[in-house]
Known about the structure:
4-stranded mixed beta sheet, 4 helices, 39% helix
Amino acid sequence: MKMVCKYSSDENSLSVRMELEIDGSGVCDIDTGENFLDKMLTRMASDAQLDLTVSTNKKATCLEKKLYRGIGTAFGSLLKEHYGRFDGRELIGSSTDIIHDALITCAVNLAGRTHLNYALDFTVPNIENISVDSIYEFYYSVVAASGISLHFIEHCGAKRVDNYHLAETSFFSFGKAVKNAFSDAV
């Protein structure tokens, strides 16, 4: 059943507009003003066949972490709206994915039990001038806004070479786990 959910938020230094269709075909129109985040969200949505539209308007005073929290809150709010149509049914999905040297399993439980297990071991403080803490802020905000349980397991640990691959795989795997949770419910 097709259902496009919409989110809008206006704060002092950040406005966020987002539309999400879980039963989509991977159509993306994403402009957060941050190239790295745009690439990660596009990878997440296109590979998981989620239709995602994101636009932001941010002032120069908007901190990077606030942007990631705002986008995470928007996505989490839309997830909650989508799984609300299943009348309290527990939706569980997972995905194990690899990109080069990064191997991650992501599992989600869309049932109103808020928890984040973020076992991703970044070995650098920044990727493409973005703090890896901002990636955590995105996932934390998704969980807080949606009430889901979200678990990440990194299988390669210290053997991994490229932190960009770890970030990319986390978004890729998260999108697919969400899609699998909804796919198993219908």
